[in-house]
Design goal:
With about 260 residues, the chain is an alpha/beta fold. It has a single domain, classed as Rossmann fold, CATH 3.40.50.720. The chain contains ten helices and nine strands. The chain has helices at about 15-25, 35-50, 65-75, 100-130, 155-170, 190-195, 195-200, 210-225, 235-245, 245-255, and strands spanning about 5-10, 30-35, 55-60, 85, 135-140, 175-180, 185, 210, 230. The strands form two sheets. A seven-stranded parallel sheet has the order 3-2-1-4-5-6-9, sandwiched between helices. The longest helix has 29 residues, at about 100-130. The chain is globular, with a radius of gyration of 18 Å.
Amino acid sequence: MSRRTALVTGASAGIGQGFAEKLASQGYDLVLVARRRERLEALGRDLQARFGVAVHIVAEDLGDSGAVERILHAVDDAGLHVDFLVNNAGFAARTSLVDSDWSVLNQEIQVMVTALTELMVKLGRRIVKRGYGHIINVASLAAFAPSPAGMLYTGIKNYVVNVSESADMEFRQHGVRVTALCPGFTYTEFHDVQGTREQVSRLPSILWQNVPAVVEEGYRAALAGKPVCIPGRFNKVIASVSGLLPESVRYQLGRRGRIY
């Protein structure tokens, strides 16, 4: 049998890096995808030394509409068969529908909707042909929350949950499971890039999780074939309560939660 291979997008930091480390520890060879080649190469050397796995680096910006095809060509050129896909790449931007250039909004959609879906479908077809595998699409607890005014992010993450469930319904018939992982506030550099570190640092510590905890729960959920995973007990409560709110209440909470 060929060795198992996992492809992780957004692998240079945060949850993506956490999944790369977890999957390497489980014996997966890796295809690491992100924009920052230097970070990927440093991570690759570390994982090779610690776990003895092969690591392939693909420096691509998923904001480019041709990136997914180039990633697939890189996989083919290396003679690899991906068994585990982690769609983690995100786009950190504070966007306003009124004030933002369309190019910024479009990139957010390209990275977190179009590229995610394209990878899930195109790699998913390959995994289905092999009859076994896992796909994790990283969504967010925000998928279950009222959407703040002028914000695409919550709607995008809601889409990720829904499309993951839909894909799982079909792929599971062929031995492949799809999981939407919905972390809440997690200690990563995402908030630094987004420029919201000062705001979120005021939140109670009970709301926060660390990357290893999120990754471990997400990995176990994928192996168990769960279509949706909300890591952390407190986050599960938040999602449940939010789902019980009337739409009129959710709308008003969204207006008050305006971040622009």
